[in-house]
């Protein structure tokens, strides 16, 4: 049973992303959203963010509270890319994600075991064993194919006392494909805000396909790792 259940997060992540993009497109087409969120207005917000004092620091640190309240990271990354451009936007986003992930880890270290079990649910022992046995590879897998909300995964890793190095490397590698994909989308959106005819749908399609293939591959690996525990 667990082998079958482990596939759900991968497909769930893909379907959720598709639903979000379809919903945004529908909202843009059939609601007054397109009249309010004009290209000039969004560029103005991005300019205000970029010109604010300590803008880079605020962009990075915003990932900490955003992660705890479950604010969608891709939206934050999209706006960061629009505000700072693809290179700085990608850099600030990755720094923000890693710093936020470390706050989750040390929260897990500090919290009582009972509280962590309440957050993670009945399968925490199974997850903890997987984290301890596979190190950064397991962290990479759960970042690509989430088993729990982003902060809860970090709290579990902290409670399991896995290596900070393994946790950081696994988080970086696991989040890298998604942040790269979002950066490419953000760059295309930034161009579209200036001239809609410049958007490259082939690039967007290729990025989406690569991201789906990586996610499915990691999901299959996670399924194989889960299989022995069901016997």
Commentary on this structure:
With 231 residues, the protein is mainly alpha-helical. It is 82% helix and 0% strand. Helix 4 (39-51) crosses helix 13 (164-194), helix 7 packs antiparallel against helix 8 and helix 11 (136-144) packs parallel to helix 13 (164-194). It is globular and about 50 Å long.
Approximate shape: globular
Rg measurement, Å: 19 Å
Helix content: over 70%
The major β-sheet equals: none
Taking the alpha carbons of the first and last residues, their distance comes to 10 Å
Low-confidence stretches: 1-11
Structural class: mainly alpha
Note the run of SSEs as H and E: HHHHHHHHHHHHHH
Percentage beta strand:
under 5%
- The number of E-state strands comes to 0
Helices, by number, come to: 14
Could you list some keywords that capture this structure?
231 residues, mainly alpha, 82% helix
Quick overview of this protein structure:
The protein is mainly α. The chain has helices at 2-5, 8-30, 33-36, 39-51, 55-61, 63-68, 73-84, 86-110, 113-120, 124-134, 136-144, 150-159, 164-194, 201-226.
Layout of helices and strands:
Elements: H1 2-5, H2 8-30, H3 33-36, H4 39-51, H5 55-61, H6 63-68, H7 73-84, H8 86-110, H9 113-120, H10 124-134, H11 136-144, H12 150-159, H13 164-194, H14 201-226
Helix pairs in contact: 2-14, 4-7, 4-13, 5-8, 7-8, 7-13, 8-12, 8-13, 9-12, 10-11, 11-13, 11-14, 13-14
């Amino acid at each position: 049973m667990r082998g079958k259940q482990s596939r759900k997060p991968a497909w769930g992540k893909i379907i959720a992303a598709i639903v979000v993009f379809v919903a945004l497109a529908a909202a843009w087409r059939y609601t007054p959203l397109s009249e309010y969120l004009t290209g000039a207005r969004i560029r103005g917000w991005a300019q205000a963010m970029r010109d604010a004092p300590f803008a880079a620091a605020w962009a990075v640190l915003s990932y900490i509270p955003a992660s705890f309240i479950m604010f969608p990271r891709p939206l934050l990354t999209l706006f960061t890319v629009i505000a700072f451009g693809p290179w700085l936007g990608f850099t600030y986003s990755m720094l923000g994600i890693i710093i936020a992930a470390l706050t989750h880890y040390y929260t897990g270290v500090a919290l009582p075991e009972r509280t962590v079990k309440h957050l993670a649910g009945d399968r925490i022992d199974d997850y903890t064993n997987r984290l301890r046995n596979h190190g950064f590879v397991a962290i990479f897998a759960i970042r690509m194919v989430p088993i729990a909300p982003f902060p809860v995964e970090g709290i579990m890793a902290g409670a399991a006392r896995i290596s900070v190095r393994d946790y950081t490397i696994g988080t970086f590698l696991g989040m890298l494909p998604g942040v790269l994909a979002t950066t490419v989308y953000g760059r295309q959106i930034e161009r579209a805000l200036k001239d809609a005819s410049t958007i490259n749908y082939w690039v967007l399609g290729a990025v989406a396909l690569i991201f789906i293939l990586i996610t499915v591959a990691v999901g299959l690996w996670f399924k194989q790792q889960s299989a022995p525990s069901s016997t």
